[in-house]
Amino acid sequence: MSKGEENDLPIMKYKDQIIRCVKNNQITILLGDTGCGKTTMMSQLLYDNSIPCIHPSIITTNPRRIGAESVAERVATLRRCELGKEVGYKVRFDNHTSKETKLYYVTDGILLTEISNDFNLKKYDVLIIDEAHERSINTDFLIAYSSRLITQRKDIKIIISSATINTNQLEEYYKKVGCSVGKVNVIGRPYNVEIKWGEGKPSSTLNQVVDCIISIHCKQEKGDVLVFLPGSEEIEKCCSLLAEKATEIIANYDLIILPLYSALPLYKQKRVFFKTPEYARKIVISTNIAETSITVPGIKYVIDQGLAKVLRSSSGAEGLSLEIISRAEAIQRAGRAGRTSNGICVRLYSEETFNNMKNETTPEITRVNLEGVVLKLKYLNISLDETFFLEDPPIYSVVDALKELYCIKAIDENGHITQLGVMISKIPLPPRAAVVLYYSYLGRSLEIISPLLAMLNQENLFTKSFQMKTYSHDDLISLFITYQLNKKRNDKWLHSIGINPQMMKASEQVSAQLIQMAEECFGYNKTSTIDALRDITLEPPKEIKRSRSHSRHSHHRHYHSSSHSPFSEKEKISYSLTTKRYRDDSKIEVKQKSEEDEVNELLKKFNTKQIIECFYEGYWKNTAKRTSIGQYNIKNTQILGYIHPTSCCCDTQDAEYVFYISLSFTTAIFLRWVNRIDGLMVNNKFLKQTPSDLKKLIGEKLNDKLQKEKQLKVTPVRETAHINVKRMEVKKATSDQISEAKKRYLERKMKKGINPK
């Protein structure tokens, strides 16, 4: 490790205090200013000083994938070792560790999966929960879990690291379970940050953001700019607006504009870490992914719009709400400017607004779906009656989660985890998706289902130009055919039809890993689980070659008999071109397969009916019934929604019942990934698998809490089901303005003697 780099960080002044505190306490709460070196140095300090033993195995968690990866790469560089040897990282579907690894950097979700297999984490000597102030659902779970772990393992050391978390609340929480707790407060940033204020409350207007960037670019000295916006849509529009505006100005540097958000392919995310050329200024426009964990080199200026999109969910209905950030988040954002030099943070809102912000981020556990958390608690045999978390989740959310887990047979009528529940808790997918994988294993249809699960879990597989052809009136079948037809296509082709090539390749890899996981998790229990779930509706596997009649069922039609063929006559002719080849002077005419023929072959080869059956096992509670006015009423709720315009089901008039995979909230509530379902199957599911005795299912204590809330007339979110997404305000330039700007840009380049081509 470079001694110069090590000694320059503020945390090194507290080295002895930290070592002493960790040695003397089971729990250490480390509060440190942004940029003090907590994330990169804490594990190294403990390892180099043999705490709590010689060559300790230390695991550090991070809420985000890019955070875990970038920190591991940075630490490996500091220690001058190969990544994956002494220092490694592990994220979902990507493991860069080995038998030699001692310093592990992982996402909190990965550690939760490890806990499922080893509750006492015998492999590790130190657990560091980093970025605890984010209060993600997984981070809160790990904090709660650590309070139980410490009673089982007196030898392990646990460090909670944060820049803004409420340390008194944490200390009180741990002391309740009899842990010895020490606190270290690391004061000092490597550089100062000057705060500049705007006026009024945060606004979603993008022109204000662009004007601020241009002002810095034209008037301020060299240094890169980091801009915080709420979501990917705003970021992409801001990048476009800024690129247009940049052609109108004269400045000393060129602009390099880089978006940064979680759905962006990883290789594009990592571009923000590249060193900025001398002739340019880098503008990184990011969501709160850049708020913590990662350090973008060269950032001197931060622009904070003061807004973030927050996920809110209940009973399968979830959406993003545009909200004002907390003071803790604002402080984190400002701290990004003082990492490598003195910096400036421009807050596009007033100081009064800042003072009126809530102190901390609202814990995710109070506002999202809790199925995965409740299943994990059941698996670890932790009672829901216990005060487990830092803050108790809403009672309605817990009850809803228990109902959902019962409906997918993960728990029984007494609330006890089933064999199926045990198995799916080990799969790194949401419980409903893991159930789909399980039933595909039983029905021997992993080859069909795993690619769909992989694609549905890729945030950015499709670009905005993607329009799925109606190969079937069911979205999942059309998606499967789209995958099969295009998985071997070249990148240019995939781009042309609106599919991200990197994510398509990633989907193939994830699909293969899901198949392997299914065989490992479900293979040893197949006989017992088939007996336990003998009412399964899946058909037995069929031969690869089927008669034509086997492919005709209610979920798709052959193109030759369908009036809804996605192919025009021109397309059919173009796909039916013939080529002539010669062998031994005899002419052989070989007819190329049309896409229509390929699709029909796929429908014959694969039993695509199983797609609907398997997914309905996991998502049957997402059933909706058509109303007289064309909307769909989500069964057993008051929620009314529309089938999304891009759905293959959108134009069908005969679908009384459908089920969906997710909801989206824009100008209205829309059902996404929609599929038709038979009314008889709907009635059987809701009759057989709806809990008959709620009190028995949730337990007496939870039932008492529920009744008290009902008396207080606390309305659950699922009844109101209104999640507001405020549309951004963008003043678009006219075509004449854009043309004039481009003309001025070219003139400036010519004056400087630069060929714009």
In words, what does this structure look like?
The chain has 757 residues and is α/β, with parallel strands linked by helices. Among the domains are: 3-186, 3-Layer(aba) Sandwich (Rossmann fold); 193-365, 3-Layer(aba) Sandwich (Rossmann fold); 542-606, no CATH class; 616-720, no CATH class. The protein has an eight-stranded mixed β-sheet, with helices on both faces. Strands 23-24-21-20-19-22-25 form a seven-stranded mixed β-sheet, with helices on one face. A six-stranded parallel β-sheet has the order 9-16-13-10-12-11, with helices on both faces. α8 packs across α9, α13 crosses α14 (395-407) and α16 packs antiparallel against α17 (446-456). The chain is globular, with a radius of gyration of 28 Å. The relative contact order is 0.09. Residues 525-590 and 717-731 have low confidence and may be disordered. Its EC number is 3.4.22.44. Belongs to the DEAD box helicase family. DEAH subfamily. PRP16 sub-subfamily.
Provide a brief overview of the structure:
This protein has 757 residues and is of the alpha/beta class. Among the domains are: 3-186, P-loop containing nucleotide triphosphate hydrolases (Rossmann fold, 3-Layer(aba) Sandwich); 193-365, Rossmann fold; 542-606, no CATH class; 616-720, no CATH class.
Comma- or semicolon-separated keywords:
alpha/beta; EC 3.4.22.44; globular; single chain; hydrolase; ATP-dependent RNA helicase, putative; Rossmann fold
